Amino acid sequence: xxxxxxxxxxxxxxxxxxxxxxxxxxxxxxxxxxxxxxxxxxxxxxxxxxxxxxxxxxxxxxxxxxxxxxxxxxxxxxxxxxxxxxxxxxxxxxxxxxxxxxxxxxxxxxxxxxxxxxxxxxxxxxxxxxxxxxxxxxxxxxxxxxxxxxxxxxxxxxxxxxxxxxxxxxxxxxxxxxxxxxxxxxxxxxxxxxxxxxxxxxxxxxxxxxxxxxxxxxxxxxxxxxxxxxxxxxxxxxxxxxxxxxxxxxxxxxxx
Length: 256
What we know:
By secondary structure, the protein is of the alpha/beta class. It has a single domain, classed as Alpha-Beta Barrel (TIM Barrel). It has helices at 10-17, 26-35, 54-67, 91-98, 121-137, 150-159, 169-174, 180-196, 212-218, 229-238, 240-254; strands spanning 4-8, 40-43, 72-77, 102-105, 141-146, 163-167, 200-204, 222-227. It has an eight-stranded parallel β-barrel with strand order 1-2-3-4-5-6-7-8, surrounded by seven helices. β3, α4 (91-98) and β4 form a beta-alpha-beta unit. α5 (121-137) runs parallel beside α6 and α6 (150-159) packs parallel to α8. The longest helix is centred in the middle third of the chain and has 17 residues, at 121-137. The protein starts with a strand and ends with a helix.
């Protein structure tokens, strides 16, 4: 199985937003990532638009459909985020306007620095079900951001989504420590369960050049990894083309 690389461009936008400028250019970053091997582009537009802006999402959608129709566009976010007065139309409205190939639903709070936990479907399934059905009716693949917990994975399958995305922060935190194998074994077990239930697997959060090989070699059938913070940080030293190439080389190695 060939694991796809989707590059999250949030940090490119965050650097740009630190000044009143268009540099670095988000669309140019997307082009570079694609030209050096990325099969997907991910964005996570938050209501305060502190990094990826609504205009970025619209422009990236147009760019990919026009110039890179085989590249997956993945929009992440909280499906319950409403319209606000700063120009944010609401998460679902933005997804409906841009029609990405994949929509990853994440239970993040507007005040969170970054996503740090998966869905608790024991309380959220009823609210998520009509959203999942709406997105699927638009031919958008739905992925749920999930922790490796057996009953939660079963609930995701019951909800009828196509994929889950494992929140891999705990694995990254444990990597290289005595807890690594214990944490990793949980992801392996839940990954096997997901596959048995017919769910495809994505993974993301703090995966990097050091730990990516271990995760994707151990957790079978990972369809896609979404990597942003580590990849953009590596690019400060290596350059974006070389960085994307190195991540892609790892995935090519573990996928053969």
